[in-house]
Each structure stands twice: as C-alpha cells, then as structure tokens.
Design brief:
mainly alpha, two-stranded antiparallel sheet, 381 residues
C-alpha cells in the first residue's frame, strides 16, 4: 500500500470503508471491456475465491471468447505471502536455510503484493481486457460505483486518473485482506488444532500419510503443523516442477512450440534466462482444495482423486497420465531435469507407489477437513 500512503487524496478512507468499497468493485462488471466480467467471475466466493467451474482456463477478453492460459488460483490464505525472492529465508527458521525461489503472487510469483496482483486481471487481454489504467478509471467514473468511490477518496478523484487508479487497486487490495472473507480459519482441521473437534479414524490415517516423509511427504511443501502459535497455511510459498501432463484442452497448447514454463515465462519475463527454474510453479495452499474442480497450474486434472493419484503413480504408471508413457510432455526435454523426484515420487523406473490406494483415500479424507465452514464443536479425544 506504499502508493496509497504517498497519494494525495482529498479524503483518506478508513480500512472499513476501503474493504466495503473493494467488495463492491470486486463484483463490478463495469470495470471490464466486455461489461460482463468482474473479478468474481473467475474468483467465486462459494469456492474459496477460486474457479467457478470445471474449465481448465476461463474465457475473457473484450468479447468473452479469449481463453486464458492457466487455471485460476484461489485468493484465500494469501495474506502473509512475502514478495518473490530467488533466495527466500523464512524469518522463523532458526537455521536460516535458503529455501530457493519463493513468494510472490500468481502461479509464477510475478506480482509482489495484493496491490499489484489486483492490477493484472484488469489489464490482461484474456481477462478484463482494458487497454490501460486510464481506460479502467474511465469505466469506473461512469459506473454505478462512482459515487461511492468519490465518497471514499474525494469529489475530484477522477480528475487525476493516476490517483483514481491507485485508489481502485488499494480498495481491491484491502478487501482481499478481510479476515472473514479471505482467511477465516473455519475448517474442521482448524477446530481440531484448537482442541474443539475430533478427526475420524480415516482422517487421522490420512494426516499420518500426509506427514510421513517416506509416503505422502506432502507436508514438505504443504506444512500441516502449528508453528510458533500460527495456524498452518498448507503451503511453503515455494516453487517446484512436478512435470504434470500437458493439458490439450488449453487452446494455447494446440501450438506444439508453446510451453508454459512458470518462472521462466511466458507471462513472467525477468527470469527467462534462469533455465534452472523452467517448469517451476508456485505451491498453492491446500486449504479448501476439495472445493476445486481443476488442479495444478494447467487444470489438467478434474478431481481431487486424480490429483492425488498423480502423486501416487506418476513414476510407477506413467502411461496413466502421459500418452505412450513418455513422461513430462509439457516441458521441453532440456528442462526435464528440473522435475522433482522427492517423495512421494521415485527416480526408479516403475518403482512401486509409496502409498497404497487405501492410503490415497485416507489422504483425500484428510484434505476434506480443510474446507472452511466445516468446523465442529465436539471436543478432541
């Protein structure tokens, strides 16, 4: 919010005013070139501010016919995301270990803050498709939200488009910091951690497999434990290359020479020469993962069962995921060495899965305990 504090508005709105205004703007289709698309069109509050449907990518643009290139991420539990760093060190890590690339927003971490993240969809040609910030401000000035915007920032705010642009992004940013909306910690697992709920026997088994470094090893990237009194976010904010299959349902992928390389581009450009990062995407939170209909950055899987089975069987049964069994078909061969083989994966050809089908079902049962709004009040055993 540095730009907000530096801006010279006639009025300085309170956080409550910005939150309420940001909520209105988040749902306002008038801000798009089509007049039919809002932030909420892709970030559905009923699905933890994630994709509203089972499409791998959403349609946008001036005519709502332009396809995106990545699955829509959830906006929940992003409130403590640090800016991107190639050499991230957790302030709470006593050992001061270099985690490597971490932080930032979007699948490639290119937005350093919620303020910058709010900017991109408004200007993206396959989202709200405005030509520039001045076009957005002009639409806002003509919209039903304009009187509220003037009440918040001052009667003459639209006379300086750059000032109004800062106000718009700030309102969206502050709204996305609303605890009740974006980080309520109201799942069954949260209640369990507080001692107010019991996990079922299957959910407890799933938690054990999730944490076991020789089986699921999920907690390596999706930490599940309370740390220094803070509830887990189920992401380390880091980046990893998983080698998920190419999704032929994405129109961009119909071009054989097109590859989405995550940190290396094409949407992010500053790390294009860092070939060691190619194929790496940000680790998403697993909170509310059971509400999603598409999984991974390219939405290639359409059920939680498929996503878990990929971790279980990627190396044991590659033919289940890759045509002809040729692995990592969404990465040029030169970058395939970047793909992780940490557990639950295995470098051994046709190595046996590290966890069983029954344990996969247990993991899924545990993942479902992280859906917000499922907290119970039964005491823990």
């Amino acid at each position: 919010m540095t730009a907000f504090y530096a801006a010279k508005f006639e009025r300085q709105p309170t956080a409550a005013t910005l939150t309420a205004l940001g909520r209105t703007l988040f749902f306002d289709t008038a801000l798009s070139a089509s007049g039919r698309m809002s932030c909420a069109s892709c970030h559905d509050p009923a699905r933890a501010w994630g994709p509203p449907n089972g499409r791998a990518v959403q349609l946008g643009g001036a005519d709502l016919r332009t396809s995106g290139v990545r699955a829509v991420p959830s906006l929940r539990y992003q409130q403590d995301t640090p800016p991107f760093s190639e050499h991230f060190t957790d302030d709470d890590d006593d050992d001061g270990l270099d985690q490597g690339p971490a932080g930032g927003r979007d699948w490639d971490g290119r937005a350093p803050s919620a303020h910058e993240q709010a900017r991109a969809p408004l200007l993206s040609p396959f989202e709200m498709a405005n030509s520039d910030s001045a076009a957005v401000v002009a639409r806002l000035a003509r919209s039903a939200a304009a009187p509220r915007f003037r009440d918040a920032f001052g009667e003459h705010v639209f006379e300086t488009p750059a000032l109004a642009w800062t106000g718009l992004l700030t309102a969206l940013e502050v709204f996305q910091q609303s605890p009740a909306d974006f980080y309520p910690y109201s799942s069954k697992y949260d209640a369990y951690l507080r001692g107010n709920a019991r996990l079922s026997a299957q959910e407890r088994r799933g938690l054990a497999v999730f944490n076991d470094p020789e089986k699921g090893n999920c907690a390596q990237c999706h930490p599940s434990a309370v740390r220094r009194g803070a509830a887990p976010q189920f992401t380390d904010r880091g980046f990893v290359a998983l080698g998920v299959p190419r999704n032929r349902a994405i129109p961009a992928n119909s071009v054989g020479t097109y590859f989405d390389l995550g940190l290396c581009g094409p949407l992010r450009t500053d790390l294009a020469s860092h070939h060691e990062y190619c194929g790496m995407f940000k680790t998403p939170t697993l909170r509310n993962v059971a509400l999603r209909s598409v999984f991974f950055h390219n939405g290639v899987f359409t059920s939680l069962d498929e996503a878990v089975r990929f971790y279980q069987q990627r190396d044991a049964r590659p033919e289940s995921f890759y045509p002809g069994g040729a692995k990592f078909n969404d990465l040029p061969a030169v970058y395939r060495a970047n793909v992780t083989f940490d557990a639950p994966f295995s470098k051994g050809a046709r190595a046996a899965p590290r966890f069983s089908d029954a344990e996969a079902a247990d993991i899924i049962a545990f993942l479902c305990t992280r859906t917000d709004g499922t907290a119970t009040t039964a005491p823990r055993e």
